[in-house]
Amino acid sequence: MPFVRSNAVDLCYETFGDPADPAMLLIMGLGEQMIAWPDGFCAALAARGFHVIRFDNRDVGLSTWLDDLGDVDVPALFTGDRSSVRYGLSDMAADTAGLIEALGVHRAHWSASRWAA
């Protein structure tokens, strides 16, 4: 599997179809790996003329794991205490932006799983 360095993490990604076709970025959420987007679904999108890109977010699958930052205190989150949060949605958005930039994608359609943050 190929990797891209983005926002200080290595993101594992996979593509389907012709890179000259319009890009379709598939974003998985809630700790799921990119393979939760089924191969058949990705191939069907590619057959309809899209260059499909799926990837593992940080702390998921083959992408960089940030275990050294410690655990998130989930009970504290429910009380509004975010002091143990290691990174936010803006960091993950920057990861994604770096991925598509590294792949030379200037415009993309995108879809997020129902579990995406």
Automatic annotation (TrEMBL):
InterPro entries reported in the protein's UniProt record:
AB_hydrolase (IPR050471), AB_hydrolase_fold (IPR029058)
Q: What's the domain of life for this entry?
A: Bacteria
Q: Which GO terms describe its biological process?
A: glycerolipid catabolic process
The GO terms this record gives for MF are: triacylglycerol lipase activity
Membrane-spanning intervals of the chain? none
Protein name (record): Alpha/beta hydrolase family protein
